[in-house]
Structure formats: structure tokens, C-alpha cells
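Standup notes
- HV: blocked on the assembly model, inputs below
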Amino acid sequence: MRRIRRVHVLVAVLAAALCVPALGAGGGSGLPTKIGKGEGSLNVIEWPAYADKSFANAFVQQTGCKIHRKDAGSSNQMVALMRTGGGGGGGQYDLVSASGDASLRLILGGDVQPVNINLIPSWKNFVSVFKSPAHNTVKGVHYGVSVQWGPNTLIYNTKKVKPAPTSWSALYSSKYKGKITVPNNPIQIADAALYLMKSKPSLGITDPYELNKSQFDAAVSLLKQQKKLLKRYWNYAADEITSIANGDVTIGATWPYQTLALQAKNVPVKEIIPSEGATGWADTWMLAKKAPHPNCAYLWMKYVTTPKVEAKQALVFGETPVNPKACPFMNKIEAGSCAKYHLNQPLSYYKRIHFWKTPVADCGNGSKDCMDYNAWQKAWAQITG
Amino acid sequence: MAVDAVRAGSPLVGARRRLSAALWRRRWLKAALLLAPPLAAFIFVYLAALVSLFVSSFWSVDAFTGKLVHNWTLQNFHDLLHSNGTYLRIAARTIGIAAAVTITDALLAFPLAYFMARLAGQRARGLLFVLVLLPLWSSYLVRIYAWQTILSHNGALNWSLNRIGLPDANLAYTNWAMWIVFSYVWLPFMIIPVYAAVERIPDSLIEASGDLGARGWRTFRSVVLPLALPGVVAGSIFTFSLTLGDFITPLLVGGKSSSFIGNVVEDFIGINGNVPFSAAFATVPVLVMAVYLLIARKLGAFEAL
């Protein structure tokens, strides 16, 4: 009996030692109050190049946190990866660079944990819309730190599409029938809603992610009409690049990443943010619930939001930092790039960008009659099926 | 026993002898020991996966958190049947294209297999074998991407058509493209069993048919075809089931209406972690294959494998 009890105590002590991270535990909130020494390893689920060696190697040298990358091709894959092995990153992953269409799902699913934003010094310099955005901050609790963002733009082949389009209506008109591509992602319903917001004000859409039944049905029926005009839905960025480079597609919805890649290949393409505005993605480094290396994770969130690193990452991937102090560093690497990526724009500019967020039933207006993500996904399956 | 061991010089050798004697006396034990590892693997890996798939198709997912809810429900099957026919359409498309690919491969494979088995010389046969199997050495993905390039607007196909004065074919990202790519990718899996079946037809039967006055076509129809049919059916099991379960080809060369059952399964698991609905849909190919294999067995395909 005695022996068994001693073993029990030992196990309990060991378990407790493993559970309490080396971070200093905070008062009642349970949040860490300082970042401890790195654990020597950091496992991330990332968009390709989000922990690119060109700026990550210096971090590895500084902190000794060796980075193990798992590239994801889509938001859905990210969520799936975070949920394997019992969720919360399965005790394997520390961080995920989730976009706004995935971040709320991870929060509601209990796959990520709150972070102490005061441990990220650059945070107070962020453009205000990225400090506590709805897609990563719930009831004042931060579940990660914003890192970069970009708009979902309209791309077109300048030789084949004339006159140059100015409105999203180009993707809904039969003029380019059989030459159009849009992403295969339920969040596309928001793009249709954004277009309807301006073209059919009678529907009363105010937020493309908060749609009641009739607004939702209007968007879905618009997308069903659009399907007849499409060449294909693209699944991966590389798919779209191939289709446009090979001439199968001449106009479509895209990210700046593809546009830059195509321009680098000398394909005559241009991209615009149409008159209606655009949807946009904003990415957040989120801390997995079962992160095995929380110190390295905090060190990374701190490092990756510093102005110099923000600038480097923005130009590697083709996106915009959330930290405006990155502007001079961007211009140092590539003259004029701060303006090119709209980092010098006033706050009013961000009003035109509707950032991805996971649709939920609670629209925030007291009533809970909005269509949730489940409904979005089912409708999307029916549109594309 | 102890005496045995001493006589053998070592306890180890004695134990081995006793074991072999015991096994000799009990044949069933030997068989059981031999079969235990593969049987265990079969039961735990294969059957357990199938059963858990089937069971989870009666569960659901909490829309809010994405967590599994372990309450028995038929909702998934109801949704499959009542969603404006979306999933029935996708199932019909999957099965239809799998059938079209199978027929195409059978038609393409038969003459080649016949030539290889009965007409070609030793060297030509060896060479043809290498050519048939050569594509399998390269990655399946690479071959699909190659077809993407061939069929694309600026690709080799349209270029060739334009050279001989024909208009563009515009096959890229259509169901036609899927049909072509599937037929190409799975063709070797049809040729090999058909070859094996044709090769096994005794020359004497074909000679006898000729002696009885049958011309070439009649001999083919009444002698060669019936005897080779099990081979064709065996090959069709591969082409049909491989197409039925694929989701990469629709993703890469398919068009705006090219989703397969596999794509829906992938989407539902990937987007919502909705394993139950995916499991419910995945029972469709399992049922289709069960029926298919029963028919194939009736046609003698398993003797030809």
C-alpha cells in the first residue's frame, strides 16, 4: 500500500510538472505574465512561406527554437490539422496561422487558447482594426495575434478582357462566359452578398457575413447563376495560376499572391479592388490549446510582428502587414512597396475591406436568425455539386 | 520430457522439438498460428475501420463547436436524399463516370491484350509489357498534371488541332477531361488481367472452332470472348473501384460540375470536421462495390485474378 501511494504521488508530481508551463502563471486569468526560456522547438501549421527561412532563420538563432513547418493548402485543411489527434493541435502543434474564416471555428471548437497580448510589444502599434478584430477576439479575450492581411481581388487578363473591369459585375455577366474562375470555398457566399449589398440595396444587407434567410437565399441563387458562367472553381492557388497562365481562364477572383506569381511569369494580368469594395483575409497566429512549446510560440508571435520581420514577410508572400511601422522597412527592401500594398492608407480605406469571419447564427442584433457556417457550407456543397 | 531435453543436449532444442510435435499433432493450431497475424491485421485495421465508419454515419456534429455528438440519428441519410438531389446527382456522376471509364478501358485493353498474348513474338511481348507498365513507375499526380497541360487552352491538343485546321477542343476542366484522364490512368489495371485470361485460352479450342467451320468473328464471339470475359470483369473491378474512390482527378482536371463522392467526403471533413455526414455518403461506394463484386463473382472474375 505504502509503495503504491508513493508511486501515485510521484506520478502526480510529474504530471503537474509537465502541465505547468515554464511561463509565469498570471493572477486569476491563468494567462502567462512573462515569456520563459524557449523549449528548443516550435511546430507550426502555416500558409506556405508564413515562417519562411528568409526571416525565420534569425529567430531560430536568437531563441534556439527550431521550427518544424506543416504547410496547409486551405483554411479547411488547417482546421482539420488542428483537430486531428483529439483537437487542440493534438499536443503536436503549437501555432496555426489561421485566416478569419477558420479562426472563429478554432475558438468555438476549443482548439486554441487565450494569449496574453501584453507579451507582444508590437501589438499596441497595430492598425486599430487588427488589434481586437472579431475574428480572433471574443468578448475581449485574445486568441492570438494578427499578423498580415490581404484583399480578395479581381484579376483579369489585360489582353483578353477589354474594357478593364471596375465592378464585381464582371464575374456575374455572360460577357466572359466559360472564362471565369472563383475559389472553391463556402466563404465565397460573402462575395456574392457584398455584390448584392450594392446592386440590390432592397435586400438590406449590411454585413456580408451576417445574412438572414432571405438575404442568404438571394446570394445563393446569384451564385447558382454564376456557376453557369464559370470555367472552374479553383482549389489551390497553384490551380488558378495554371488556369490563367494556360489561357483557360481570363478573369476571376484571386489573392494578390497569384497575381504577383503570374506577373513574374510575364502573363499580362492586372488586379483591382472593384468599386463595391472587397472581402479580405486577415491571418492570426493562434496558440494551440495543447501547445507543447508555449514559450517558443510566444517568442515567435513577438518576433513575427516586429516591423522589420513584418516587412520581410509581406514582400515574400505579397500581403500587407498589420504593423504600420513596417512601412519604411518595406520601402527599403523594394522602393514604393509600402504604397503598393496600401499600408500607407488611412483608416477609411479599411472600411472598403470586409474581413473574413466565420458566420454564426447570432448576428449581434439581438436576434439569432442569421445563417451559420454549417448552412453556408451545405449551400456551397449544393452550388458546386 | 526432462529426459528428452537432456538427451538433446540443450533445453532449447528440446522445447523446439516439443513444440513441433505439438503442432504436428494438432493441425488446426498450426493453421491458426500462421493465419493469426494477417487475420488480426484484417480484423483490426480493415474491418474495424469499416465498422467505425458505418457506426459514425448515425452520429452528428455540433454545428457550433464542430464536436461529435454521439446520439443515434438518421439525419445524415435524410440529408443525403433530400438536398435538392445534390448528393444523388454527385453519386450518379461518380458511378456513371466509373462505368464509362470501365467500358472504355475494356474496349481499349482487349485488342492490345489479345495481340500481346496470342500474336506478338517473345520480344515484342516483353517490350509491350514494359510500355504498358511504364506509366506506373511515375507518380500518379505527375501524370494527371501532364494531362492538365495537354488539354489546356494553350496545350498540346489544341495546338495539334489548329495545325491541321481544326478548331480548339476546349476539353480542359470538363467531365470529358476526367473521363480521358481516368481511362488513361487505370488502363494498365485492365490490360494485365485481360492478358492473363486470353493467354490461358487453349489453342486447341480455337483450332477446333475453325475445324467446325467458324470464321474469325464467330470464333471470337463464341470461343475467345466467353473465355476471356472473367479477365475483363476482373480488370473492371480495378478500373471501376479506383475511379469510384478517386477525388484528386476531379479536383485537378474536373470542371465546375465535377465533384465526386470523394470530394464531398473531403470537403465535409475538411471544412466542418463533419465525419458523420461523410461516413454516411461513403457507405454509397461501399454498397455499390458490394453489389458489383457479387455480380463479378457470378461472372467468374475471381478465377481470373
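- HV (later): unblocked. Chain B touches chain A through 36 residues (CB under 8 Å). The two ends of chain B are 49 Å apart (CA to CA).
- Next: hand off to the docking folks.
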